[in-house]
Every structure is written in structure tokens, then in C-alpha cells.
Write a structure and sequence with these properties.
This protein is of the alpha/beta class. Helices cover 25% and strands 28% of the residues.
Length: 380
Amino acid sequence: MSILIKNCRAISPNSDIPGASIEIEGKFIKGIYLEGEQLPETDSVYDAKGKMAMPGFVDMHSHGASGYDTTDEKIEAIRTIAETKIKEGVTTYLPTTLTLPGERLVQTMEYVAEYQKNPSGAKVPGVHLEGPYINCECAGAQNPAFVRKPDIEEIKKLNSIAKVLIVSYAIEVEGGMEFTRELASCGITPSCGHSNATFAEFKKARNLGLKHLTHFCNQMTKLHHREIGLVGSGLCDDNTLIEIITDNIHICPDMLALIFKVKPIDKIALITDTMCASWLDDGDYDLGGLEVTVKDNAARLKSNGALAGSTLRYNNGVKNAYAASGLPLSQVVKATSYNQALSLGLEKTGKLEACYYADIVLLDNDFQPLAVFVNGEQKL
């Protein structure tokens, strides 16, 4: 099956081409054509009417949407979330777990493995395990009742069911440093989050293989002029990728502008960190056994008001990042897919370029998705 997306503004890392056309053959992009060039004959044509085309977004930290969380004891949870993500322009996402008992995590991995056999929405190349090896003092919306010490054997067991791509944990807890080394040796991305680590501890973990900082600025050691903590670590270190939730709630626009000013765009990844209330109305919800109230798009624990994930739609996060950064879209787009693909080893992903997967989102000028292609198949 061949498709031609004609007359689009093709935005890819370091490239912004108005009047472009994209030829798709099977699962891959076959070629990019400039305005005025002879276009190929294809089985079908999609007229983008000058709207933006970007590589499909990669959301590597998302717990849920449309009434489901990744760790729900329902097999349809992963499928529903993956199909909802398509509506945001997300073509690849990592189901993200919570701090829960081991048997619940095993069950979740089994559901992920089943979805991978017959995907109907966004691609799911693997899982992001957030917790359960966190610092209880920084639990946030993670349930402290199920926190435990890092256990590489538990990770290996889960990884044998469905691929584990990222583990978020506190590097400073007992066994955390050795756990960093063990994750790296298994080819799994170590990411520090829900942590009170110092800059010295960060540097030690980085030398052992730490690669990411989870939902940057949230539930981590704050920046202080006598101890720069994890926030300072993320800003200072040009080799560590930081996740940012660009809903203007978890990080205010002024802080976003500062991050984009001092952090290389190649080491920023936009995420949503959504929970089940995403795409639903304000109201009361559950997150891993904790009661959550959503009001004015902010999800907070009933018990203490702590933020409990987000309801952000990825495309709106891209819009907010573009507004806050002051960067051209050809730079911002690195943080929506390409950086994630490089860090996680997702091949042929994150560019509008020949031989890359035809994972493409078409957006209007307000960043609302008009069409989404996954592996060359139109899903929206």
C-alpha cells in the first residue's frame, strides 16, 4: 500500500519544509518531495492543505487515559490507552506502572505482552516501571505502602514477560547505586525520580549508568545555593535526558523557559504523565489505590493536595513547549520523538526521512491532530 501526503509543512529535527510531500510505501517513508517536484503515483493521496506534519510523538511516561490506568486489573486497559493516545498524535507510548505489589506488576506485563501481539493504537515497544523502589519522603502520588528495596531479580522477571525499557527509582536508597549498574548492564534505562539525592550522589550514579531524570522538577531534590540537588543536576549535566511535563501546572511557564534556555534541546523529552482522567471530565478518580480529585485539568491527591499525574494531551504539551521555549519547531520537535528514540534505541523513529517508519501526525495551526499514521496505516 502506497500513500502520498501532499502539500504539507514537513517539520523534522533540523528541518522545516513548506509545500512538501511525503511518500509512504508499506510501513516506511519512501521519500520527501519539495514543492514543484514531480510527485509519484500512489494508491491513495492525502491532501494536507499546507498543515504541519511531524514525526509521530513518543510519550515514554503515561499511566493512563479514558478511564483506565496501565495497572488496572483489566485486560482492555492497555488497548484503550493506546487507542486514546492516537488522538493526541502519539504513535509510540510506554505504559507506565505505579508502586504496587509484585503480582500486580506481573499481571500488567502480561497484558502489555498480549497487546503487543495485536496492536490497535499506538505502538508499545516496552514498559516504563515507575517505582516501586523510591524514597518514601518523595512518594508524591505513589503509594508508600508498597515501596521496597531495589530488586534486579524482580526486574528480570518482569522483563522476561514484556520488555522493560525504563525504571524510575531513587538512586540514594539502600542498594540504589548497585541497582543502577545492574540496570545498565541489562540494557535497561536507569532514571532517577521520587528521590532526595544530592548532586554528589547524582554524579556517582551517572558514572554507573544513570541516563534520565523522571518528571523533572517534581518529587526530586530542589535547587538550593548550597546543594543544587537533582534539579541543579539536570540543568548542569548535558548528558542526562530530562522528562518534562509541559502542562504549565507541574512546571510553570517561566521555569519551562529557563529549562529550554540552559538545557540542550537534544536532552529534553516531553511527556504527559497522564492518569486515567485524561480525556475525561473533572471529578473524583483513583490512582493506585489513592483518591484523586481533578479540577481545572489538575489532578491532586485528596489526602494532601499533591499533584497526581496529569490530564495533559500530548499535542497541547507540544504547543506549550513551543510557546515557552522560543525555539523554532524544527528544534522543539526533537523533544517530541527523536530524543526518546535515540535514548531508548527505537530504530528508524523520530524523523520525516526516507527509510524511517511512517509514524506521522498532521496538525492544524493550533496543534490539534488532523490525521495520524502508524507504520503507514492511517489511524485517525
